[in-house]
Amino acid sequence: MSIEVGAKLQGKVSGITNFGAFIDLGEGKTGLVHISEISNGFVKDIHDVLTVGDEVTVKVTSVGDDGKVGLSIRKAQDQPQPEKKPFKREFRDNSRPKPAAKGKPQTSGKQDFDSLMSSFLKDSDDRLSSIKRNTEGKRGGRGGRRS
Predict the structure, then answer these.
(1) How many domains, in total, are found in the chain?
(2) What is the distance between the alpha carbons of residues 33 and 22, in angstroms, rounded to a whole number?
(3) Looking at the structure, do residues 63 and 113 belong to the same domain, yes or no?
(4) Where would I find the S1 motif domain in this sequence (predicted)?
(5) CATH number at residue 53
(6) What is the mean pLDDT of residues 79-98?
(7) What is the rounded CA–CA span in Å between residue 73 and residue 33?
């Protein structure tokens, strides 16, 4: 029996270490399943998943020139992997008033402008005071620049 990359084989767990499990493939051939290739989820202790003597289906991932065989239980399972969607970050700026939609007339009254202006000035003063309060201590206060 020749062992080729990509082949699915039946094997028996012959030994367990802290980094993986050795699988007896028959005819004196042994391969290693690394701890990361045992399950799709995180495996802290291999003994929680496998025991010596378990029959497992493995997929050959690599065959070295020196005879070392790399195996994977995770890839031997026929479950399709869920596709990872790229993370999209949305930024929202709630500080600016939203423009009026097309087709809707904007209300233009002296009261509306005055209230908008006063709220803008109040908000601006609050922001400036918080910026000053947060940066003065970090830059050394009101002195000249440090050399």
Answers:
(1) 2
(2) 6
(3) no
(4) 6-74
(5) 2.40.50.140
(6) 62
(7) 7
62 in the same domain as 14: yes
pLDDT tens per residue, range 94-107: 666 666 555 555 55
E-strand spans in the chain?
Answer: 8-16, 20-26, 29-34, 55-63, 69-72
Q: Is residue 80 part of a domain?
A: no
Output the pLDDT for position 28: 86
Average of per-residue pLDDT across 10-37: 92
Residues pairing with 10 in the sheet:
57
Whole-model pTM: value is 0.52
Contact of 69 with 61, CB cutoff 8 Å: no
Residue 88 has pLDDT above 80, yes or no: no
List the structure tokens of 42.
């995180």
